[in-house]
Amino acid sequence: QVQLVESGGGLVQAGGSLRLSCAASGIIFSINDMGWYRQGPGKQRELVATIIGSGSTNYRDSVKGRFTISRDNAKNTVYLQMNSLKPEDTAVYYCNANVNNVKGYGMDYWGKGTLVTVSS
Q1: Regarding beta strands 10-13 and 114-119, do their DSSP bridges make them parallel or antiparallel, or are they unpaired?
Q2: Contacts of 53 (CB under 8 A, 6+ apart)
Q3: CB atoms within 10 A of CB 51
Q4: pLDDT digits (tens, 9 = 90+) for 1-31
Q5: 4 by DSSP, 3-state: which?
Q6: Which of 26, 54, 85, 101 is most buried, by the most CB atoms less than 10 A from its CB?
Q7: CA 37 to CA 50: how far, in whole Å?
Q8: The dihedral of CA 61, 11, 82, 36: what is its sign?
């Protein structure tokens, strides 16, 4: 089993910054993609940013230039640096990881989420 634990959420004023972390633990052979998703009030879950093992990244348009995703492969951890936060960034942020087991099969895992609230 693999567990993903997010941290770093909280309340911040518009224009402020937060840094989210997500650490994977358990039986991990290797990790493929890691990413952050979010679900705002009354909205569907949406992709925020992803990063593959080589370090290539992908962002949704609304966060480009404000958010930065990174990963520490030695620590099985992914980060999301969020700057210039806006009220519309308010959401529960979920970590996702595609993890290979010792047989080479990849499976998706999700964290329980961390709440980010941006006040205007």
Answers
A1: parallel
A2: 30, 31, 32, 33, 73
A3: 21
A4: 899 999 999 999 999 999 999 999 998 889 9
A5: strand
A6: 85
A7: 9
A8: negative
